[in-house]
Design brief:
The complex is a heterodimer of chains A (about 290) and B (about 190). With about 290 residues, chain A is mainly α. Chain A is about 50% helix and about 5% strand. In chain A, helix 3 runs parallel beside helix 6, helix 5 runs antiparallel to helix 6 (about 200-220) and helix 7 runs antiparallel to helix 8 (about 255-265). The chains are: A mainly alpha (about 290), B mainly alpha (about 190). The interface between A and B is large, with 43 and 60 residues.
Chain lengths: ~290, ~190
């Protein structure tokens, strides 16, 4: 009862709160809108409009950094894939104590020329021999016994058992370098995102563009041996989620959208994990 | 008002199509249709004509820039109000920061001298109480209790669930009730 009375009282009395004028200055505002649109300035809330505002970093710097990061990651991934391609020396050093049973492959050779343990010739395929390396996306059907990725597998006859060293948790140094570089960039972006002014639309747009670049790189890395690392993969996946949220943050987004990103960052300890994943010094910056 | 706001009407879609096509008359028509409500809300939130004008202008400038990306998932009114609220909140935060930087000395002089009993004016006290609410509560309170928006409209505009809108309104009223306890006889009677 009292509650209802209070609500009624509040609704009545609150009508005086910041009561707008009866006459809305339509024409004046319309003229100002047209003038601003013709002049093309950016609107600064509460302070009229100005042609431009000083940004902490210029647009060219942001875009340049993003382009450089993209190029670096693409180069790194390319080098990584190239160095991860099958070579005789890699196969020779691929001997491990962990056997991997592989699927039968009628066309695959069953011997090799560089001392790699090869299975006995198959009666159905007596000429089979040699080695074949793959990046682990096919051909493995047996238990990998703890391998996070069957990066190189020797294939042979149905009974063949090949041995391979797992490169899964030890991707090439090019991949590592690229990954660390990428994570450093991501940390820089997220730090900028958290410290920026919420009213700075231009900064939002720049961060969005930067995040889009990093998102592409993150997905490239998720598809590379770097993601075989059991600690790095979840970090990259969480990073991907945050970057998607930042990319989707439109200039008209609500504070709740930003809060959601902040919440994701905090709940998943993304920043802490990023900083842990980046070695101190050396790799920072682009 | 609710019926007016509810759905993206055929007229709205037609209007948007014309605006996107560059029809200047359609732009003015859209502006005339919605400017009063946008301005009123901006004024309620800002309490200042200059700021309200700035927010309203920025809202329409941005709306015209982005109208091509409007997909009709909400009504045009809700979409415009979302932009308006976002513009106003960001603008108010910015001006608040500026004012805080500009007038720390003045505030320092008045600290300790404020006396609730010395402010008998309910209108003034109520305004201060509303101003002191957190943005999320103040926004919902102003939209619902002052400007008469429905929870559905608030939900669409602020991009929050209807339940959250109701909860925020309840919180706002509860806080105001505590802050205005001195005036209890006025509403009890």
């Amino acid at each position: 009862m009292t509650e209802d009375k209070f609500e009624e009282f509040l609704k009545t009395k609150a009508q005086s709160y910041n009561a707008p004028p009866v006459r809305v200055p339509r024409d004046e505002m319309w003229s100002a809108i047209q003038a601003k649109r013709l002049a093309g300035p950016r609107v600064i809330y509460g302070g009229g409009s100005v042609a431009s505002t000083p940004a902490r970093f210029g647009t060219k710097v942001w875009l340049g950094a993003a382009a450089a990061a993209m190029l670096l990651v693409a180069t790194g991934v390319g080098i990584g894939r190239w160095t991860a391609s099958p070579t005789v020396s890699q196969v020779a050093t691929a001997i491990s104590t962990q056997p991997v049973v592989v699927e039968p492959d009628a066309t695959a050779p069953n011997s090799n020329t560089d001392g790699v343990v090869a299975p006995a010739p198959n009666a159905a395929n007596p000429a089979a021999g040699g080695t074949q390396a793959s990046n682990g996306r096919s051909g493995v059907s047996a238990s990998q016994r703890g391998l996070t990725s069957p990066a190189r597998v020797l294939t042979g006859s149905p009974t063949s058992v090949a041995t391979a060293r797992q490169p899964a948790t030890n991707p090439s140094s090019a991949y590592q370098l690229t990954a660390v570089q990428h994570l450093s960039e991501a940390e820089a972006l997220l730090t900028s995102f958290r410290t920026r002014s919420t009213a700075d639309q231009q900064m939002d747009a720049q961060l969005g563009a930067w995040a889009r670049q990093l998102l592409s790189n993150t997905r490239l890395l998720l598809d590379s041996p770097v993601a075989n690392d059991p600690q790095r993969r979840p970090l990259l996946e969480d990073l991907e989620l945050v970057l998607v949220q930042i990319v989707q943050l439109s200039p008209g987004s609500t504070p709740q959208d930003r809060e959601m990103i902040e919440k994701t960052l905090q709940q998943d300890h993304v920043m802490t994990r990023l900083r842990t994943a980046i070695p101190a010094g050396g790799q920072r910056g682009s | 008002m609710a019926a007016y706001e509810s759905q993206s009407s055929v007229n709205d879609i037609h209007l948007i199509t014309r605006v996107v096509a560059g029809d200047a008359a359609a732009e003015r028509e859209l502006y005339d249709t919605y400017v009063d409500r946008i301005y009123r809300l901006a004024f309620r939130l800002a309490g200042d004509d200059e700021l309200a004008r700035d927010f309203t202008q920025a809202t329409f400038i941005r709306a015209f820039e982005k109208i091509g990306s409007f997909r009709g998932e909400s009504s045009l009114s809700t979409w415009l109000h979302s932009i308006g609220v976002s513009v106003a909140l960001n603008g108010l935060r910015k001006t608040k920061r500026q004012r805080n930087r500009e007038a720390p000395m003045e505030e320092g002089l008045t600290v300790g001298s404020t006396n609730v009993q010395a402010e008998p004016d309910l209108k003034e006290r109520l305004a201060r109480a509303i101003d002191s609410l957190a943005d999320k509560y103040r926004m919902v309170f102003v939209m619902h209790d002052v400007e008469g928006y429905t929870h559905e409209e608030i939900s669409g505009t602020l991009n929050i669930p209807i339940g959250t809108s109701k909860s925020h309104l309840f919180q706002a009223r509860s806080k105001l009730r505590v802050m205005l306890a001195d005036f209890a006889p006025e509403w009890v009677s």
